[in-house]
Amino acid sequence: MKIGILKETKNGEQRVACTPQSASVLIEANHDIYIQSEAGLGSGFTNREYEKVGAVICQNAEQVYKESILIYKVKEIEECDYPYLKEHHIILSFLHTNSNEEEMRALLASQCLAIAYEDITDEAGEFPVLKPMSELAGKVAFIEGLSQLQSTQGGVGILLNSILGLPTPRVVVIGPGHAGRAAAELAAAFGNHVILLGRGLANLEKAQQLLPQTTDLLYATKETVRCACSEADLIINCVLWPKNREGHLIEASDLKKLKTGCLIVDVSCDEGGAIESSYATTISNPTYEVAGIRHYCVDNLPALYGRTATLVLSNVTLPYVLELASKGGRQALIDNPHLRQGVSTYKGKLTLEETARKYNREYCSVVDILN
C-alpha cells in the first residue's frame, strides 16, 4: 500500500507520525512511503534518513495526498488539507472530531475512512495509543508549570521544589488517570506537597501504588477540589469533561478564591470543561489571565518534546499501520474490533455516537456499514 506521511502544521507541532526506522519496517513489508519534505526535522530526522531506507520525498502536502492511500499523521486534519481528502483515503491520526465540527464535515464530505488514535482500544479496555501520550502530557504539564512560575515567564517566582527553611510548594492534580498520575509522580519527585483528586477508585488505587505515601489522595467533590485548590501554587487539570455534562469542578467565580500567583495548567483544555475558564491555547501563545489567575492550556503538550513523543507514538502506532496496509481498511476493520472502535467516519457516515448527539447528526455503527 502507498503510505503518506505529512509535515504537521498545527501551531508548535514538532512530531512526525513515522520515524525512519518505522518507515524501513513498512518498506521491508513491501509498502511504499511518501513523506513530505522536512516532515521529520522537528523530531531530529532529516530527509536523507528517510531516503536512505527507501522513502520518496514529496515537496508538499498535496503531492503526498495524491500519491497515497493511507495518510499517517499525528494531529487533526487542518483546513488547508480539506481539498485533498478523497474517498479512497484512510486517515490515521489523533482527530478529536468531537471538538472540531469543520474537520468532521470535511471527513464526511470526502467519504474517506478516518480512524482516530484516541479511540482505539485493546483487550483490557485501555486506549493503547492515547495512554503513552497522556502520560507524556502529564509529565510535560508539570515541567511547563515549573517553567511558567519563573519570574521571567510572568510567574510569581516560586520554585516547585522543597527548599530548606521554606514552606513546601503545593501542587494539586485533578484526575488520577494516566496523565494525572504522571503529573503527580513528577511533582512528588521534585519534593512538592502533592494532592491528587479523583472519582475513579481503581485509578486512585493505582496512584496509591505508584506515588509516595506523602501524596494526598482525595475523592473529588466540588468542595474537596475547591478546598485543595485554594492553597495551591500549581493546579494541573487532567479531567476530560463529558460534552453533555453540566457544571464545572472549578467555576469562573472560584478563581478569586485561589492563592495569588497560582497557575492553572489544563491538560484537557476543553472549553466548557472541568475548569470553566479554560480554552485551548497554542505553543506560541500559551497563557492568558482570568481574574488574576494565569491559565496555560496548550492542547498538544507532547509536541514540546518532539523526538521523545515521536519515538513513542511511532512505536505504538506501527502495528496498526502494518495491519491496515497489508489487509486494506475494510478487512482490517472486520478482523480487528479494537481498531474498529477508532473509526470516526466511514463512507460519509458518522460512526461516533457521542459526536452525532453533540452535532445532532445521524449515527451509524461501523458494523452496519461493513455489513
Automatic annotation (TrEMBL):
Gene3D superfamilies: NAD(P)-binding Rossmann-like Domain. It holds the Pfam family AlaDh_PNT_C. It is an enzyme of class 1 (oxidoreductase). It comes from Vagococcus fessus. This is alanine dehydrogenase. Residues 149-297 form the Alanine dehydrogenase/pyridine nucleotide transhydrogenase NAD(H)-binding domain. GO terms for molecular function: alanine dehydrogenase activity. One of its GO terms (biological process) is L-alanine catabolic process. Pathway: Amino-acid degradation; L-alanine degradation via dehydrogenase pathway; NH(3) and pyruvate from L-alanine: step 1/1. The lineage of its organism: Bacteria, Bacillati, Bacillota, Bacilli, Lactobacillales. Its EC number is 1.4.1.1. GO terms for cellular component: plasma membrane. Residues 4-137 form the Alanine dehydrogenase/pyridine nucleotide transhydrogenase N-terminal domain. Keywords: Oxidoreductase. Belongs to the AlaDH/PNT family. InterPro entries: Ala_DH (IPR008141), AlaDH/PNT_N (IPR007886), AlaDH/PNT_NAD(H)-bd (IPR007698), NAD(P)-bd_dom_sf (IPR036291).
